[in-house]
Design a protein that fits this description.
Structural class of chain B: alpha/beta
Radius of gyration of chain B: 21 Å
CATH topology of the largest domain in chain A: FAD/NAD(P)-binding domain
Oligomer: heterodimer
Strand content of chain A: 15-25%
Shape of chain A: globular
Largest interface: A-B, 53 and 63 residues
CATH topology of the largest domain in chain B: FAD/NAD(P)-binding domain
Order of helices and strands of chain B: EHEEHEHEHEEHEEEEEHEEHEEHEEEHH
CATH architecture of the largest domain in chain A: 3-Layer(bba) Sandwich
Distance between the termini of chain B: 32 Å
Distance between the termini of chain A: 44 Å
Radius of gyration of chain A: 23 Å
Strand order of the largest sheet of chain B: 5-6-4-14-15-16-13-17
CATH architecture of the largest domain in chain B: 3-Layer(bba) Sandwich
Helix content of chain A: 25-40%
Number of domains of chain A: 3
CATH superfamily of the largest domain in chain B: FAD/NAD(P)-binding domain
Shape of chain B: globular
């Protein structure tokens, strides 16, 4: 392959749909994913031999994945590269960024490098989980719900024998169902959202959600609800895990009723014996590459896109969870729109058909996602769960007390200064886990809020792997040449 | 003049040091910053307190004075602020400058000789002595000079500590307040206009680092301070294997150069937390924040020349900052005769952390009308080498 029309980063539902749509429109495509298999977190599965029974129990819309995968991997004009880690991007003026990639196993010594200068880029990098801190959340046996789900889907293993699933959002249901399938006893699902909030979010007017969308969603969730009911798993709303207990690992948790703002109701706490607990409170868009590429974000930290999934950077499109958490159906719809639009730019029209190209479907699903956020969004009362000795930054083992004391001692209103004086957020995760929590724990909004999203080195890479400067390949017309694209200030 | 109102523009290391000195002298000080404290250049570098990279002359004099003050402060600030205040991580670890080529060795020895003539402790080491100090250093050393006076401090915490101390002496620190311009009466400053209203002031000290030219412009004066971009890499934590600040001898040339295009030279050191900091690049291209893979790759390659083991160490972060660059490579410190009441304490390029304390002492003496410890004239905004850029 000599030139790349459309580079798609991320092969979850959004990236797969984007790559397929771009190919359909006639563009030559490169699809990258850091994982060894396609499908992203949503369609996570073992490298070899997914069993039918497991697929039925653990996967949703599997035939759609199989069809997308086959269409792309059998296509000579679509190069699919798994184990491909984007580690940096270089912004260009009026063109999509140059993308720097390492391929192969991360622990495999010198990984081959590639530098791509595509005509258009679709970012489909998904989201990671946000877990709120509470006393004991750093004990062994406390997992993110996503990690438990990944183990169930990817290795068919359960994180424990007696497991409680807690947090908020529809995601708790498939996690609990997945745990049941791989043999765990699920002692309960604890949803922080109150029934009233959930009813307001799901059902309140203006009732613009198409009945078909609600019905499809209900069918998917209904399947999980039936699985939980069959196993007699209690489902509780308006409650949260406020503490995990145990010496070397978790042996019990305290579950308490909470009010609409997630402030605990005094005297309602009770202990539940478990050997594992899975928590999930929200998802955070993975915007490292988008931020490095210069894409503008919305107030909530998602990548801002227009009706054709275009970002603020010419030639860069975004789809799926990085544009706002909305689930796989929305990701598939956005990916299709983004792939067509990117192909249209890259091939100066190409075979892009008329019509609205799925934008209306995106709007309908986005409306549904907005309802979910109203029903399940994090509420400020969580801050009262955090004790002074609760660890908030696990990489550097920084407690909430240390962060609060550093803020009080220095009086800074800057997150950057506070990180450096408390060491919170400076560890290997670079604030991916704790960044939002830190910001919200402060008495007032930091003056440099949002800067934790700026991570020019996308993932840790060995110095030896990136050391020799590589000249970027010549860009293919009609792009401007790569090398002189950064304007250096003239000497005075 | 004591008891007079002073507004310091900029809550970085220089503004913090100036505010502390002036407040302790009896001035009524307000520090204003459009952003947060320690949010700009002061939290974008390694925290260098260096004499090793300075040729004999006024900047070296200022560095020696500043180094003395930093050593005193490293003891005074924790005593004053108490055990709950975050640690400023002062380490008198010394600097080790090494050359790996024949030409580099000659240049390094000549430079160190001139420094010794000016009273700097610069000890030439054999390759074996260098290897004993830094066991993981490359065996390709052609010359090595140890500078025991070089030290390191956590620059953001040091800034906060100076601000906290200034507050204890009565200073006010207001973050998120932008200075819009001066209020001038009968040809001299009587106050400042800010985004939070009017503030009376007999003196205004511009300590806004690379943004100082923009601030000075709001007072109607030209100040030749330009941003010079730098990038630092941070590795993951690991057991300490690098004991000094270690530079390749190219560093001195890069510091003294005026070129706009990218230059890199290696500066490698461990932090108290166990990460390794790798600098430093110099590039003038305005306030362009993007970090490019080529810069990162060049920094990595040069660091590996000094410490080959770094090839297997993961880098987890790159951050950029802007140094306040002045064409003749000297900071601008002192009153501005073009607008009585206006002062400058800026233009320290990459040495602002190290030079902040001496700068504060100069400003303090000049404002109080006493004799400074070193001559202030070389730093005056009216100096001949800046004439072309401050007039016209």
């Amino acid at each position: 392959m000599t030139g790349v029309d459309v580079l798609v980063i991320g092969a979850g539902p959004a990236g797969l749909a984007a790559a397929r749509a771009a190919r359909t429109a006639g563009a030559r495509v490169v699809l990258l994913d850091a994982s060894d298999v396609l499908g992203g977190q949503y369609w996570r599965h073992p490298l070899t031999g997914a069993r039918d029974a497991d697929v039925r129990a653990l996967q949703h819309q599997w035939p759609r994945f199989v069809a997308l995968r086959a269409a792309l991997t059998d296509d000579p004009d679509c190069e699919v590269v798994t184990g491909a880690q984007v580690w940096a991007v270089d912004r260009r003026d009026d063109a999509p960024p140059v993308v720097h990639v390492l391929t192969g196993p991360a622990d495999g010594g010198d990984r081959p490098r590639r530098v791509l200068a595509p005509r258009a880029v679709v970012l489909a990098t998904g989201a990671h989980e946000r877990t709120l801190p509470f006393p004991g959340w750093d004990l062994p046996g406390v997992h993110t719900a996503g990690a438990a789900q990944a183990m169930a889907k990817g290795e068919h293993l359960a994180v424990g024998g007696r497991v409680l699933v807690a947090g908020t959002g529809p995601f708790l249901l498939p996690v609990a169902a997945g745990l049941l399938h791989v043999g765990a006893t699920v002692v309960g699902v604890v949803e922080a959202g109150s029934l009233r909030r959930m009813a307001r979010g799901w059902l309140a007017p203006p009732y613009r959600t198409r009945p078909a969308v609600l019905a499809a969603k209900s069918a998917e969730l209904g399947g999980y609800v039936r699985a939980l009911a069959a196993a007699r798993v209690p489902y509780r709303t308006g409650a949260a895990v406020l503490a995990a207990h145990g010496d070397s690992r978790v042996t019990s948790v305290t579950v308490s009723a909470i009010d609409e703002d997630w402030t605990p109701r005094p005297g309602t706490g009770r202990r539940v014996a478990v050997d594992a607990v899975c928590v999930s409170h929200a998802f955070v868009p993975r915007t490292e590459i988008a931020v490095s590429a210069g894409c503008a974000l919305t107030a909530d930290g998602s990548v801002r896109v227009d009706a054709t999934q275009r970002t603020s950077v010419p030639g860069v499109y975004a789809a799926g969870e990085i544009t706002g958490i909305g689930g796989a159906d929305l990701a598939l719809a956005e990916g299709e729109v983004a792939g067509r639009a990117a192909a249209g730019r890259a091939t100066a029209g190409g075979n892009v058909a008329g019509g609205d190209g799925g934008a209306a479907e995106v709007r309908r699903l986005r409306n549904f996602a907005d309802r979910m956020h109203r029903a399940h969004g994090i509420r400020p009362g969580w801050r009262s769960w955090v004790e002074d000795d609760t660890v908030v930054c696990r990489c550097e083992e920084v407690t909430a007390g240390r962060v609060r004391a550093a803020q009080a001692a220095t009086g800074t209103r800057g997150l950057r200064s506070l990180k450096l004086s408390s060491r919170a957020g400076l560890g290997i995760c670079q604030g991916r886990v704790c960044g939002r929590n830190l910001e919200e724990l402060l008495p007032e909004v930091p003056l440099d809020a949002g800067r934790t999203a700026n991570r020019p080195i996308v993932v840790p890479v060995r110095l030896g792997e990136i050391a020799t400067p590589l000249a970027p390949p010549p860009a293919t017309p009609p792009d401007p040449p790569v090398a002189p694209s950064v304007e250096r200030e003239a000497s005075p | 003049m004591e008891g007079a109102q002073v507004v310091v523009v900029g809550a970085g290391i220089v503004g913090a040091a100036v505010a502390r000195t002036l407040a302790a002298t009896g001035f009524r000080v307000t520090v204003l910053d459009r952003g947060a404290s320690a949010g700009g250049t002061s939290s974008g570098g390694e925290g260098n307190l260096l004499v090793s990279d300075k040729a004999p002359g006024p900047e070296l004099d200022l560095a020696v004075l500043s180094g003395r003050r930093w050593r005193e402060l490293a003891a005074e600030l924790p005593a004053e602020l108490g055990p709950d205040f975050p640690d400023v991580e002062f380490e008198a670890k010394g600097g080790l400058v090494v050359a790996t080529t024949g030409a580099g060795a000659d240049a390094l020895r000549a430079f160190a000789g001139r420094q010794r003539g000016a009273g700097v402790d610069a000890r030439e080491l054999t390759a074996a002595e260098a290897a004993a100090l830094e066991p993981d250093l490359t065996p390709r050393v052609t010359a090595a000079v140890l500078y025991p006076e070089d030290a390191q401090i956590q620059p953001a915490v040091a800034t906060e500590a100076l601000l906290a101390s200034a507050r204890r002496h009565g200073a006010r620190v207001r973050q998120g307040v932008t200075v819009l311009g001066g209020v001038v009466s009968r040809g001299r400053i009587v106050g400042v206009r800010t985004s939070a209203g009017h503030l009376g002031a007999e003196h205004v000290v511009v300590a806004a680092g690379p943004w100082s030219a923009g601030v000075a412009d709001r007072f109607g004066v030209r100040l030749p301070v330009l941003p010079r971009r730098g990038t630092v890499l941070v590795t993951t934590r690991m057991p300490h294997r690098i004991r000094h600040k270690v530079y390749d001898a190219d560093y001195v040339g890069a510091v003294e150069s005026a070129a706009a295009a990218l230059q890199t030279s290696s500066v490698v050191e461990s932090t108290a937390a166990g990460t390794v900091l790798i600098g430093s690049s110099r590039e003038r291209r305005g306030f362009d924040e993007r970090i490019e893979a080529a810069v990162v790759g060049e920094l990595a390659a040069k660091a590996m020349v000094l410490f080959p083991f770094l090839a297997d160490v993961p880098v987890m972060r790159a951050y950029g900052g802007f140094r306040p660059y002045v064409p003749d490579h000297l900071p601008v410190i002192g009153p501005d005769p073009r607008l009585p009441g206006l002062w400058h304490a800026t233009g320290h390029e990459g040495a602002g952390i190290g030079l902040a304390t001496g700068t504060a002492e100069l400003i303090g003496a000049l404002m109080a009308g006493t004799e400074p410890a070193i001559p202030a004239a070389p730093f005056a905004v009216t100096r001949a080498s800046l004439e072309e850029v401050t007039t016209g």
